[in-house]
Amino acid sequence: MSNLNRHSVKGMLVVCLIVVFTCITDADEKQVNVTGTSNFKKPATQRDYWPTKEWNVKKPEDVGMNSQALKKMELYAFSRLQPESERKGIRTDSVIIVKNGYIVFEKYAGGFTRNKVHITWSVSKSFTNALFGIAIKEGKLSLSDPAWKFYPSLNRGQHKNITIDHLMRMSSGLYSNETYEASPLKSTVNAMLFTVGHTDMAAYTASQDLEANPGEKWEYASPTPNLLMAMLKNTMSAREYDQYPWEKLFNVIGMKKVVWERDVAGTFVGSSYIFTTPQDMARFGYLFLNDGMWEGKHLLPQGWVAYSTTIAPAYFTTKLSKSDMSDPAYGALWWLNRDIPEKNMKRAFPDAPYDMFIAMGHWGQYIFVIPSLDMVIVYTGDNRDDAFNINTFLKLIIDSISKR
Hints:
Elements: E1 18-24, E2 31-37, H1 67-77, E3 92-99, E4 102-108, E5 118-119, H2 124-137, H3 164-168, H4 188-194, H5 201-206, H6 223-233, H7 238-253, E6 258-260, E7 274-276, H8 278-289, E8 293-294, E9 297-298, H9 304-308, H10 322-326, E10 329-330, E11 335-336, E12 357-361, E13 365-370, E14 375-381, H11 390-398
Antiparallel strand pairs: 1-2, 3-4, 3-14, 5-7, 6-7, 8-9, 10-11, 11-12, 12-13, 13-14
Helix pairs in contact: 1-11, 2-6
């Protein structure tokens, strides 16, 4: 989980939109009914092009933004005042702003260029989300399926009660310790990526004991998406799996430069190891901004984005740590900028809209999707301390939008 700056938050009156939706697969018309709270509503704008081949560019003023005001964000984000060797301070590698479907700002630093891929770290989890949406649309599996059906070693004790939905919402109950550098010897994510679990990350994840009954406790756990990606692998041939992310997602939306590493067992590392360009990250965010539609066709099931931006039910029954209380809320492999009155939680980024959802990675990798502003913001960096303030960054961008 990325370190987040702590904010003082002004109280705001917010109306929650209660959404009841149904995902329907094209394969057999099987319905998956999910009830929850989501603020997602896709922009009403009719798209006049899709960035499958290239992004079209406009001046900020052409989409109701102010270039001079946007300069304040540029000066803040690209300051890089500390020596490179110390890896301290604000260390932005790229910023892309897409407004109304057009790139209105794009800049690179730190040796990165438009065509150079950047590690996304946990942004990869949201790509795992998309592939499961596609697989569900194709009828390969469903959210209510028991996980053991696609990963047999889970067919034991209470483990057999873990569902795909539990895994998508970080509510499986499997033991996890997401401490990274703070406690490297106890960290399950470090063990999975670099030591005892790195050869078969799914097997390492599935071997963990339960620390709670499935569905009862929310806990952010990087091993979870790797178990999901192994389960997806078990629904198809090895050859289909090799090409599945490209044929079903990357190539369809025009992501031209993607590297996705695998573990020794041949499973795509769904937690961490997608490398791609900021422009391609923006394409991915744009897919979700448009409710899973691309070039007029539903790539993701109807209702999938609403499902992804619905707060995980176990969030309400879990005693969260102080750190979790300051972070965004959680949906299904996406973070949510939501107030949660039931937990006395204010949104993590108070100057950003309530409907914003985020793919978020270690050391400052972000895709911010803001439907109410018809906006996608991509940020990549190498921020090792608390110098970079996400709320400040977002506020500077939002303040550049002309008031009407």
